[in-house]
Please model this.
Amino acid sequence: GDTLYGTFECRTVDTLLAFGSNGRVYSVPVSVLPGGRGDGQPITSLIELEVGTQLLYYFAGPMSASLLLSGSSAYGFIASVDNMVSKFKAGKAFVTVNDGETLCAPSVVLCDSGSQPWPLATHVACASTGGRILTFALSELKTMANGGRGLMLIDLQDKDTLAGAAAYSRSIRIDGVGRGGKPRDETLEIRSLNNARGLRARKGKLADLGFKPTAITRIE
Model:
């Protein structure tokens, strides 16, 4: 559909990244995007999308910004925008997404300029669709300049999947679906997050959310 994914205030020196369901990252210099007063242009006209691939997520920021990338199988790693940029319209194969897996939303680890600067995160919070939460130090993750699969974030039980992983310093929001398909969300502050603290790749704690997590987002 043509609904608005999100708006990013960006500078012409920034780069727009588009993340495909196949784990490819497509990059477009913000300077080539049409100005806000015009009609706009579909992003798909600026890149060469593989057949059967959907664009799932977007991020605009400076080359020095870094993101936490993860998939539903609960593996993840950190990479900078600079690592993900490609000269080719066909993008760059970057996150390993095997059959039956899906890409989770990228989370900002650091963005030192632009309209919404984020200080360097200190921790990572993982939420599983089964309602388990684990937090651990960001330093337990690897930066992978060439992409790949990364390290196990949380030890999932059978049939459980990762709803998402977010970098944070103080707080995150978990979005999900409650009874009757109602959208629900809950913000967890530092105390609750510290309660779920452990080492990377542990099982985490079952959270009493009352809904099924579908996404997790950095707030602070």
Q: What stands out?
A: The chain is about 5% helix and 35% strand. Helices lie at 81-84, 190-195. Residues 83 and 145 are 5 Å apart (CA to CA). The chain has a mean pLDDT of 92.
